[in-house]
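Following the same procedure, the fold was encoded as tokens, giving this record:
***
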Amino acid sequence: MERIDFHNAFPADLVRLAQFTPVWMGAAVKIVAHYPGAFWRQDGLAGAAFSRTGPLQELHDMSGPDGEPAALFGFAHARTVRPGFEQAVTAQLARLSGPAAGAPVTLHVQDWSGERWTAPSTVQHLTDYSLFGHPLYRRPALNGSLHWASTETATDHAGHIEGALASGERAARAVLAAPADVNDTAQDVTAPSR
């Protein structure tokens, strides 16, 4: 609602809902630490942790089933990003998973709060997660030509990939079930042929 001009096409209750619904990853930073091998598995560790003593609040093993590629990923709150953030992350990885975890081959940092299309300027102040899956998100907008599909609009597993997938499937079913005249009025989009 903040970045796309819909020319006042939405009803006021939908505008309010969209403005106050938190963006699940909007205030989060995701890190992925890539390693030559999943050494933590050989050390008998799961590669998972929850912490309140460093920038990472949670850590998970992101490696393939056989340990390749080997990676750990974690989440931090965007307010923890400051000079020295990457060093604080690698120090915390070493404390949680051993010295080798402090020296990843690569450390990828994605600060979602800095992404224009992911985080509204009010993202730090949006905390009413009860708005996730609100019934207005299950109704098409703009005369049936706009369907909401995001983890925030999911009725189950909101905030997780499962919620995003379920929401996308719900929206796709609604589009496919819409009367032909509704789909014809939308902008032409060519689907790849099979």
